Amino acid sequence: MMISELQREVAPWVLHNFEDCPSWMPLVGIMEELGELAHAHLKEAQGIRVNEDYIKNAKDAIGDIMIYLADYCNSRKFNLEQIIDDTWNSVKQRDWKADPKKGETNDNL
After folding, report:
1. Per-domain residue ranges for the chain?
2. pLDDT of residue 16
């Protein structure tokens, strides 16, 4: 599924299930899911709570983050796929090994 398709499909689902949801609510949902992702990673790294499926929990949190992010972008009338494209086109030009202070390459100067 493309990110733009996810964003289109999330809109009517959210409207049906959470009709009067303010735009900040999916943002809080993202933060809550980030906590779940961090929890899964931490417990796996610590080797505790071995009865939990760390990988399943991490993947579930990542999926939920993306859905909340699509919802947040819809509420703000942002195009998530365009934001990702624009940001990646900028970030991929950075070379932190060549220029640890700014990440700029000679091509960017």
Report:
1. 3-78, 82-109
2. 97
Q: Does domain 3-78 have CATH number 3.30.450?
A: no
Burial 52-88 (b: 16+ CB within 10 A, else e): eebeebbeebeebbbbbbbbbbbbeeeebbeeeeeee
Residues with Cβ within 8 Å of residue 74, at least 6 apart in sequence: 7, 10, 11, 14
What stretches in the chain show pLDDT beneath 70? 105-109
- Do residues 64 and 1 make contact, with C-beta atoms less than 8 angstroms apart? no
Q: The tokens of 73 are what?
A: 């972008």
